[in-house]
Fold each of these.
Amino acid sequence: MTRLAYSLLLAGPVLWALTMAGCCAPCCCLCGSGGCFGGGSYGGAAAPVVPTSYNSPAAKSAPAAPQSDQGTVIRGQTPGYGVPTYGYPQPTYPQPTPGSDQYSRGPMPISGGVPATTTFQPPLPAPPGEAMPPGDAPLITPQTQPWWQPPSNIQPLPEELAGTPTPLDIFVEETRTGRFMFGVAVNSDAGVTGQITIDERNFDITRVPLSWDEFVNGSAFRGAGQGFRIEAQPGTQVQRYLVSFTNPYLFETNISFNASGFYYDRNYFDWTESRVGGRFAFGYRLTPDLSVSAALRLEQIEIFDPRVATVPELNAALGTSHLYSGRFSIMHDTRDLPFMPTEGHLIELSYEQAFGTFDYPRGEVDYSQYFLIRERPDGSGRHTLAFSTKLGFTGPDTPIFENYFAGGYSTLRGFAFRGASPIDDGVRIGGEFRWLNSLEYFFPITADDMIKGVFFCDFGTVEEKIELQGENFRVAPGFGFRVNVPALGPAPLAFDFAFPVLQADRDDEQMFSFFFGALR
């Protein structure tokens, strides 16, 4: 009883002191929950306790609200109060699951101590560009600010920040422009031929070497962007030797110039033919795809060793003839590749007038169209439908060695070389009219496009006179393969099988035609 009375005597002054201080919730002050704020209360009751083990972004960043009419100051007890929203909703974040690794946490507080603060602080997203602050302030967007720049992962150098020029040393090394190539080719039209080629794409005809050292270091005859080519093709049935010079910008203009000299010899079945001469051509590119050209040809032709002597047209061409001609052509070329194109077209119109030992005109139309049917998403595996036609007319005074012929790999497959041409007393004499067509469908066989297949149909005719005769019309469908081996050169290996379904009476058929070449 004495101990109880003593305790009451001690508690009385303490309660009186607390009452005089204006605390309406002694328990809150004793436990340190923060329920007392300058003599005011939270809704007339004890203020809610905000857990300090998770710092709410809204509660942490909310500034103090202005005083109300009653003089009560509320300091962040309502989450989000006092934070300007600028017209867009505030983000909400899920509470971490107790005991999980969803967010990183600091050490747990010791019983009776000060709670530890976690390291989790969700970032607030940037306000949208159309956000408007309260009031009549103008629209604020990053793009309207003078300090705004597009994002970049390149950090400016100190010299750039200071506005000073940065010195640069640029070293340029010229690529290899000269090539020495040798190879061999076999095809069903010309037999076996070899090839030795010297090609320079940065030739300079005026840069004559002054010493042997200029030949050694490669500076002789180089540097003007001209082209120079020496080519030798010896063979079993055909041999050809060529020297050519090209200037793509004659006198620094858009006019191109080409000059070439050649020697050509061919053993045909009915006679042997040799030619020596030259060609001069000027060209002008009107657009990237459209060009015009004019050429002058000078040749000396010799026909000898005739198989028979009973054909008047062959006898008229025996011996030496001189042929000069002027040719004008216009060409529109949109093909994507020169070899095995997959889309685009080629249109060429030409007219040539020959004079000399023989005098005759010649007009030709060549047209090729390539349609891309389908391809893989990466651009490979292309399926292409191609159509080509060649139409030609020549005058009645055209010599036999300038007539049109058909048959073979490059004209009408399914027939021997010149085997689909007009014939007189067993001699293939050719004709004055040509109309040859080909419809082809190319498709990949291997995933790397190295091997392609083709279905085709060649059709057309060559007539002795400018006319069409149904009994001379030829049609030969077939299939083949194209093998692209980059190490062997740009032209693919070609193997074709054709089966004539329409032919003339004395045509020479040949089911298999091929081209095989290797160039290094």
Note: The helical segments are 2-20, 26-31, 57-61, 158-162, 212-216, 312-317.
Amino acid sequence: MRSVQKRVTVNVNFLNSLSMIGPVVRTMQPMVGGTKVAEYHELTAALRENAAMLPFIQALDAAVATKTNENATPQALHLATEQALTAVEAATSHLRTQQTEFSEQLRLKWRHTITLQVVSCLLAGLLALTVQRHDKALRQSFTMQEALGDQQEQLRKSEERWQLVLRGNNDGIWDWNAKTNEVIFSHRWKEMLGYAEDELPNRTEEWEQRIHPEDRGRVQTAIESYLRREIPSYVAEYRLLAKSGAYKWVLARGQAVWNEEGEAIRMVGSHTDITERKENEEALRHARDEAQVANRAKSAFLANMSHEIRTPMNGIIGLTGLLLEGRLTLSQREDAEGILDSAEALLDIINDILDYSKIEAGKLTLENIPFDAASIVKDAVTLLAPQATKKGLAIRVAQDDLSHASLIGDPGRIRQVILNLLSNAVKFTPLGYIRVAVNSISIDELHVLLHVSVQDTGVGVPKDRVALLFREFSQVDSATTRKYGGTGLGLAISKRIVEAMGGEIGFTSEQGVGSTFWFNVRLRTSQQQPHARFSEWTRLAQPEQSADSLLPDLQNPDSSHPRRLWRVLVAEDNRVNQKVAREVIKKFGCTVEVASNGSEAVDLWSRFPYDIVFMDCQMPVMDGYQATAVIRNSNAVARSIPIIAMTANAMPGDRQRCLDAGMTDYIAKPMRPLDIQDMIERYLANSERVCDQSSVPNYT
């Protein structure tokens, strides 16, 4: 079929050549025959290769020879042209006849070819379908084999990971059959106890016998509770006897498998060696116990030192104060004032250290009692007024008209913070004034935000030393320590106290201009009426005022306190402190009798009634706690008499111990006149007289 197709194509090319030969021959002339002859030979080159075309080509060649003959006549040229055209027509007719025959042959061949192709396609389709089905089956088989291989590989990797986990976490595995009581211990489980694989049989008894006798009951109870589903999981820590004879601590975890009836049929778990952790815990426990013993020893030491130091300090401060009330030369007064200042500075150091010790021990307790904000500010200012007077400083106090002047909180701690801020202001202000401002911001019907600020015109704080403030045992610089003294604990303690109350403390300062320290505390309001309300104190302390002028004169008939001869019993074993207490209390218009121990105090109370008792806690024969208990139980009147504890103990719990013993209130030594004044005002100023005035002996 391809040869016929080729011949058809050749005939088509011959016909195309013949269609172009006629015009070429017709235009041939002798003068320009060369170009046309070349064109003629190019067109007939393919025809000359076909034998069937040779007769026609020869006739054409003859006509072309005549056309290119220079001697040919016109008649000969015309005849040659006619002969050439006739030869072209004859060749064309011959080729067309062949073309028709070739086309018919080609059509027949195409019909057979198409038929064969259709049959071949059908056979090929059937074969392809068969092959496809077979291939699909093979692929499915291969897929199943690959899936099976993947599953096996995943199982292998899972097993490998599980083994790595077991080896990595160093756990021993056990598998217990609850039905047969059979158990399997892993190699690591046995190795933890120091055994080789074949040295320890896989028996439940081997495990039970190795549990420490003190732990056996607890472990058994935990397992039974878990199997009864009383607890969500089985976790236990206990000791197992090792091959060496020592006990190993293990952390046991287990998970049970239950059947449809809810019975445990199997339990699998692990043991983790926690011996090192337990040893560390025991070491930490031992260290903690030692630290607690050391802390108790420290507390006892501080308590003893506090008592031993405060007792003579009470005498030094008290006697110096009495000495300053007498007639002294200028030099003597300066010396006495120096003694008093040094004693007060030493007392401040002792108080700071004790407060810091309380805070560090986590024993800082806060009261929640009604108090008057104005009163505690006044107390603090009054206490610092003498120091300000000596330096020529004025102290001014501004307080807004509180809508809830009676608040609930810890007035002692708030007073302590104000005292610390005010003391720093006096200490670091060489000239000018100090202003204390107290404001309240109402939060709701039950709470107010108390804002207290202390402003001074002192030396200020350098910017590069600001970070040292509020740090324990820190001063702005070493020069400050030498010049102004102190422990560097005042602000740190104040910060701890304010934060314990849920408040905040801060400051602003400019070197050479002054500082303002402030704090905020959130307090509850009280339904009780406030003791006093102040809008503005413009001159609480001025340079020309003396310290005594700030104390109310209880003996002055014009004073707010009417003259009354109150009977006071002082129980104190130290002779110096007896004298100090007697002289200070007498200043407030009272008669004073002194007992040297608790037994004498009980005896005097039984013979004479008293309006108030100041009771030292530590005395020979009978201490203050025992004496208070005896007095309270003596009669009905005694149960309401104010008994004020006087003690040099100032550690955590001392105040509460006094209250628990039946005492009414508490004064820490050394006693200041203001402390005694506060107790007399609080418990006697508005009370009825207990004793008959005529029965009062003349004590001197």
Note: The two ends are 160 Å apart (CA to CA).
